[in-house]
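User: Fold this, then the next.

Assistant: Folding the first:
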Amino acid sequence: MKDTLITYVDEDGRKAARSLWGRYADISDMVPINSLKWRSNFVGMLIVIGHGRTMVDMGRYIGLDNVLGDFGGSFIVLAACEVGMVHESIGELQSIAQGLANTRKNCFVWGTVRDLPKQSVADGTCFYKSPLFNWLQPANDNFPGLWIRYEKQSDDEQAISMLSKLKLPES
């Protein structure tokens, strides 16, 4: 098994994933998202590609964490538009990337803070081959400040970060 797994959550994600995998087939495997839950011993980078809206909807209905099940990877990249942003207009109090980092044990999650051009995922310009590991990882070189790494928050940190998003009346 290779050290980078590439998966997708929607049709646009599938197209971009296929292209990215074609460029990096020497260090990556492309797998269906539903097969990840059986890879409890995986050590490497998982790249989940698709629209942020699709990932938000997954979180709302079945949950990206539930889809991953017993997946053992500690490094996850959500390659979608604005998965590191809170979408207050649809009632999200926490970004999907932070939420996933909070629910996965010992997991680092990278998410984007603004639009991620589908073509830059497909052609791999928002990733680079790690010099230390045999995997792809997010790169800010071509898109400065695009990626943010999220780690598990304490219960207090979670409450405080979400509290500021509530529209509470001032007293």
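Now the next one, as you asked:
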Amino acid sequence: MARLEKSTGVAQCNELRAAISRKYGLPSNSDPKAFEAANRELSPHYTRCYLNEGKFWVAFLDLMTPEQRAQFTRETHDGRR
């Protein structure tokens, strides 16, 4: 999974989010200005990171055996009904 996160760009996005959060002392800093500043800094990367997460989940499902995929689908969809 770590290789998949790295190859799809998810690891880099997670690192970026974590670095920005640390920079502004989030989540422990409750100052709304810190949240606004962090969101402004992360905003230009949001679309790319969102698309990377989509690539990750498509590839993640391909790693599973048919039985694992069926169980995963049952468990993730049963909770939404």
